[in-house]
Amino acid sequence: MSTVPIKDLSRLCIHTITTKPWSIEEAVRHYSESGVRGITVWRDALRNRNIKQTGEMLRRYGLTVVSLCRGGFFPNVDLNTRKAAFDDNRLAIEEAYELGTNKIVLVCGADPAQPLEESRKQIFDGISALLPEAASAGIKLAIEPLHPMYADTRSAINTISQANDMVKSLNSSWVGVAVDVYHLWWDPSLEKEIERCGRNNLLLAFHISDWKSPTTDLLNDRGLMGEGCIPIRKIRSWVDTAGFDGFIEVEIFSSEYWKQDQSEFLKKIVTSYKKYA
Amino acid sequence: MSTVPIKDLSRLCIHTITTKPWSIEEAVRHYSESGVRGITVWRDALRNRNIKQTGEMLRRYGLTVVSLCRGGFFPNVDLNTRKAAFDDNRLAIEEAYELGTNKIVLVCGADPAQPLEESRKQIFDGISALLPEAASAGIKLAIEPLHPMYADTRSAINTISQANDMVKSLNSSWVGVAVDVYHLWWDPSLEKEIERCGRNNLLLAFHISDWKSPTTDLLNDRGLMGEGCIPIRKIRSWVDTAGFDGFIEVEIFSSEYWKQDQSEFLKKIVTSYKKYA
Questions:
Q1: What does each C-alpha distance from A179 to A170, A197, B10, B66 come to in angstroms?
Q2: Res B202: pLDDT
Q3: Distance of CA B22 to the CA centre of its chain
Q4: pLDDT at residue B3 in the model
Q5: What is the mean pLDDT of residues B50-55?
Q6: What does DSSP assign to residue B224?
Q7: Which residues in chain B touch residue A233, judged by CB atoms under 8 angstroms apart?
Q8: SS in 3 state form for A237-262?
């Protein structure tokens, strides 16, 4: 495999949720001191803050605001709930604009009370209706296919092939795909679909973490890179080959790590990034 | 959808693991009294028993022994462990023959210490080497693709498309596919791949249960049919259309149900089978 370790941290981005116990002010100070150069902001981290000023603060620390996480959750059997979700996505576009990022990650949603096909249709319609506003704000929407174990409530888009197909149907330069190794590592068509995604300039984001054996919780037991069985560097080589040169984003949900000292955890993130990303 | 409820229990099969607290002697007595006509035997249920006599007992109760569960777990980084697994699969063929069933379900295995591609190769090689003995014993091997959340340690075959491809490569009438709705319901290509599987006469088994929202455990929180979001009857209609007319097998791993009175649980299985299968 030709892909080699990245010796510096110029492409390292961390999601605020990864160090959830920290406020965004604490997070950015620590990230900056450690040499991290990118941050993806989860919307809960912006609560009770002036978003524009928060964006300015992040940049003063020398960080790029890689994306806002997350929009989506379009499907619902109830029309009013769908409308509320759509309005929340419009709000996310405003927030992203204020924050000064050019990308929103979409966790597309699913409603177990209706067929997956219906949820997929509602996702398509939701994104489609959102695209004009995204375009006028200069914000790209990144569809993140989620692991099939989240097909009941979190996303009816569960493979990169589905995401690529949907992006193709949407036919807009304002929508693309976010590749997260945790969700996609098992897929035998992953290399081919990453290539397809890159060829069409649709690869907007690359998220990393690891799959622990055993994994004890469906949501909050992700591992640090190197702790599990995901061939992270191999997948990065595919992403490299596909022409992606953006940030490599560490997104770890872990009840275990959230209990620990976050400064120590951040050191581990940096070390494992250098070794395994 | 044209598929209608099956009014009688002539096609209902239950896996012994579903009523794990019962011995196989208790299970068969209760199944038989309830009108169940098929049983799939998990190998742990045969421990310390004469297998031939156990098979005869099951038939005396009027039950068909639908399959033996399970062979597989072929891959391992260590050659001796692989050899031991292979010998255990040979033993499973003997046990199936003694028991008087003509089918073994394969949970193919995976080793997180090696790439999925290598595990897949070892699965192919293992089944390939096993086929002559399976054929001479008159036992078919059913590859069961497992949900991607089990790709680390339980199976590197995670979609029906992969299973169909592997069966095609193996090119033997002694190997086919077991479709389990719990593992496959999320897959957008499921209908098409069930059709492909049936067209080639490779659909050997059909397992049902349900996906609960939320699911609280990766292994032992399966739902009774109707408790979750899997469109069981819709998938059965695809299986029907594909020409499958074998047993419909209830396979539920549930810490919750295993704690309850198993006679009450069995009544619920029969009721939900009639309503949702």
A1: 18, 10, 47, 42
A2: 96
A3: 19
A4: 75
A5: 98
A6: P
A7: none
A8: HHHHHCCCCCCEEECCCEHHHHHCCH
Mean pLDDT of B96-122: 98
CB A208 within 8 A of CB A232: yes
Q: Cβ contacts of residue B173 below 8 Å, gap of 6+?
A: none
* Closest chain A residue to B212, measured at CA: A152
Q: How far apart are the C-alpha atoms of A69 and A62, rounded to whole Å?
A: 20
Please indicate if any CB of chain B lies within 8 Å of the CB of A149.
Answer: yes
For residue A209, which amino acid is it?
S
CATH code of domain A12-276: 3.20.20.150
Residue A226 has pLDDT above 70, yes or no: yes
pLDDT of B63-104, one tens digit each? 999 999 999 999 999 999 999 999 999 999 999 999 999 999
Q: Which of B141, B35, B54 is nearest to B100 (CA)?
A: B54
ipTM of the complex: 0.97
Residue B218: which of A120, A158, A218 has the nearest Cβ? A218
Given an 8 Å threshold on Cβ–Cβ distance, is A151 in contact with B228? no
User: How many CA atoms lie less than 13 Å away from B197 in the CB half-sphere?
Assistant: 34
Residue with tokens 């036919």, as numbered in its chain? A171
Compute CA distances A160 → A148, A184, A228, B143, B175, whole Å: 11, 7, 21, 25, 30
* Calculated CA dihedral for residues B122, B125, B126, B130, nearest 10 degrees: 180
Interface contact B159, partner A, CB < 8 A: yes
Cα Rg of chain A, angstroms: 18
> Is A83 buried (19+), middle (13-18) or exposed (0-12) by CB count in 10 A?
exposed
End-to-end CA distance of chain B: 13
**Residue contact A112–B228, C-beta within 8 A:** yes
Best A108, A111, A114, A116 member to test B by mutation, with max B CBs in 10 Å, is A116
Angle, helices B262-276 vs B24-34, to 10°: value is 50
Alpha carbon of residue A173 to chain centroid: 18
Q: Which two tokens stand for residue B186?
A: 């999320």
Average of per-residue pLDDT across A146-153 = 98
pTM of the model: 0.97
Structure tokens at A245: 């040169």
pLDDT at A2: 56
Q: Which residue of A has its CA nearest to B149?
A: A149
Q: Do A211 and B116 touch (CB under 8 A)?
A: no
